[in-house]
Specification:
By secondary structure, the chain is an alpha+beta fold. It has a 6-stranded antiparallel sheet with strand order 9-10-11-18-13-16, with helices on one face. A hairpin with a 6-residue loop joins strand 9 and strand 10. Helix content is 16%, strand content 33%. The longest helix is centred in the first third of the chain and has 10 residues.
Length: 299
């Protein structure tokens, strides 16, 4: 390897580094078992970014490229293949903008990227540019979350009962989820055909916004600080529109959801902005923030 961190007399401790690519390119990497960019063959390394470099890099190199995704990489798992160096412009692209970050070090990976190093695949539009904290990375590493369609929530199903109802649905299901400010993870408005039990496990408090069947609205602050009035567990009744997010200033929240009967796609309905605003005009602001604007879909 041509360079090491010591060559630049710099210690970089980012918990996560990032790589932009198309959804198709990452699908090909899944099939191949590892991610390889063209630059690995032509330049000897894969271009990565630190959190504050992602959006400038996207503007400079990926303007107009459709269907981009952002790979969130566990920096520690890349080992000695990860080197932080001065920026190396792509041969086919214009130089990076001259600004305060022009002389900053950029992460380069001098090997193919094992898929185990990819702890999240997110839409670029959801990325805030905030670094991933080491505590958040520990949770990403532990639970290996997926992303819920429609909502975009980081989640992992932990239990699906083998017992079945007459309908074929499981008698119960459970999942663990993570709201993460740096990764844009939250829950958009939706409703379920069955009751859902929420559990707050740790991290920062978060709020559930509820739109009830009688036209009223309410909020529940979830967390583990009972003295502050936070709820460790709450039942959301069937057919209640619900959305959730961190309270301002929060870094992440680890939570769980349990359902009986268990979750199936047929019990989920997305809450679209126009429809919800018409029924709950007093909640228009939070509906605009957390409502669904894409085509109808299910998890």
């Amino acid at each position: 390897m041509a360079h090491t961190l010591a060559d630049h007399m710099t210690t970089v401790t980012d918990a996560a580094v990032f790589h932009l690519c198309t959804r198709a390119a990452f699908a090909a990497a899944r099939a191949a078992g590892a991610y390889r960019a063209d630059s690995l063959q032509h330049e000897g390394f894969i271009h990565l970014s630190r959190a504050h470099q992602v959006l400038p890099t996207a503007r400079a190199y990926f303007a107009g490229v459709p269907d981009l995704v952002l790979l969130v990489l566990d920096a520690a798992s890349l080992g000695e293949a990860l080197v932080f160096e001065p920026p190396a412009p792509l041969p086919t692209a214009t130089p990076k903008p001259t600004d305060a970050d022009a002389d900053a070090l950029y992460p380069h990976c001098y090997s193919a990227i094992d898929l185990a190093s990819v702890v999240d695949v997110m839409d670029l539009s959801s990325f805030t540019g905030v670094p991933v904290h080491a505590d958040t990375m520990a949770l990403l590493r532990q639970y290996r979350f997926d992303r819920l369609p429609v909502e975009g929530t980081l989640y992992r199903e932990t239990w699906r009962s083998e017992q079945r109802l007459d309908s074929g649905a499981p008698t119960g299901t459970a999942m663990v989820g993570l709201y993460a400010e740096s990764l844009g993870s939250l829950s958009r408005f939706h409703r379920l055909a069955h009751d859902e039990v929420w559990h707050a496990y740790g991290g920062d408090p978060f709020v559930l916004h509820l739109l009830h069947t009688d036209g009223t609205t309410s909020e529940v602050t979830m967390g583990t600080d009972a003295a502050a009035g936070q709820q460790a567990q709450v039942v959301i009744p069937a057919n209640t529109w619900q959305a959730g997010c961190l309270l301002p200033g929060g870094r992440h929240a680890l939570f769980g959801c349990t359902m009986s009967p268990g979750f199936t796609p047929s019990c989920f309905e997305a809450g679209h902005v126009a429809e919800l605003t018409a029924r709950y005009p007093a909640a228009a602001a939070i509906i605009a923030q957390l409502g669904v604007t894409d085509d109808p879909s299910v998890c």
